[in-house]
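Go through this pair.

…
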Amino acid sequence: MKKTLSALTLGLAATLVTPTLLADEVLVGLITKTNTNPFFVKMREGAQAQTDALGVELRTFAGRFDGDNDSQVQAIENLVSSGAQGILITPNDPVAIVPTIERAREAGVLVIALDTPLNPADAADATLATDNFKAGELIGQWARSKMGDEADNARIALLDLSTSEITVDVARNQGFLQGFGIDLNDPNDIGDEDDPRIVGNDVTQGSEEGGRRAMENLLQKDPSINLVYTINEPAAAGAYEALKAAGREDSVIIVSVDGGCPGVRNVADGVIGATSMQFPLRMASMGVESIVEYARNGERPEASNGLDFVDTGVELITDAPVAGIPSVSSADGLETCWG
């Protein structure tokens, strides 16, 4: 019977496969979007720790910049020609990379997308990722409980990633809205809701500068904003600076997603009310383990129950817990954050 990856843990990994069985037999490739983003740095750490524990070889590659598909194509071709049994990839272009991945799979290589699904998702053998809808839903539920009766009078600013509406952007945004109790129209579309509590959406490119600019734009539209959702923690930091400049920092709740150490510290400092933490180290480690399992007996990873991907977990981080929503403190979050 196939193992369900969500049940596997780093602590068990070393006992499942012995290095003496696999040394010099299994080659695992890891291809990240870039080699500088702390999220992908942590992925490499997780993959390296797991391959070391299992006695297999890891080769890592990365795009030269976010969006660099050509370098990822070259990396896949390099790994296939080197005899890799499996490749883990965070695709820079989930569509353009598909033909190259199809050729790798035809050559017998197990290909697993990490964090970002391919388009179509089944172009990979499996996807290991954060449940981004759940991540958004948790911070939405927290915000509603935190505001109490005032949630009915919320003035909400939504600071998204880009106009491209990639999967992660849509999932986090829509999860937040549903968690807060706002009816969704098309759950695959950002900005089509008609709830009067929504002031508007703006895009940030996931950066602090973008978050500041988007927050300034929406404050001009409605200075009474009292709840801000952001696609990630750098955007949240920028939004806070804009609110501070307007003298509104103490009267607005900011929620976000990521779990990077700077973001968790911003929870501790009161900049962010709550954030949903994802686990890149665990994601990569589970990916390595599934490739080793495939190399041993041909078994492929199974999706988590009710999902079309393997859920690598999400955890709410806040220093203002509310009843009925499991969370951990920023102090505990600093023990597991990345970056």
